[in-house]
Q: What sequence folds into this?
């Protein structure tokens, strides 16, 4: 197996400085909605209150997202023409997605839906 195909199982709360609630949230959402595709998918599907930036940083350092074939350091530096590091781009995307979902829920009488698209980030 490739390095990113190996699995390590930890109990919720088994990663230092990552809240048990955040890990349980990630697992529960994955079981209900299927595997995560990338960091943007994870940040947009998980509850922003339970999984914050610090939790994501520690999950990255622990290798929780290695299956996406993105080096751990790439989450913390600006890629090519990006103005923010990849993790911050993903968290901004998630914030916009959550706000869009709230706006769409509030505007029940509007026939238009807002669309938020994943930023085009090239990872080197």
A:
């Amino acid at each position: 197996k490739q390095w990113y195909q190996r699995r390590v199982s930890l109990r919720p709360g088994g990663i230092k400085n990552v809240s048990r609630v955040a890990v349980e949230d990630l697992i529960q959402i994955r079981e209900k909605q299927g595997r995560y595709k990338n960091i943007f998918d994870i940040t947009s599907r998980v509850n922003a209150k339970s999984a914050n930036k610090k939790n994501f940083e520690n999950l990255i350092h622990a290798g929780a997202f290695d299956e996406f074939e993105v080096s751990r350091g790439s989450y913390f530096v600006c890629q090519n023409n990006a103005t923010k590091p990849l993790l911050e781009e993903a968290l901004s995307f998630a914030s916009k997605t959550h706000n869009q979902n709230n706006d769409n829920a509030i505007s029940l009488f509007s026939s238009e839906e807002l669309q938020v698209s994943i930023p085009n980030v090239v990872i080197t």
Remarks:
- The chain is about 40% helix and 0% strand.
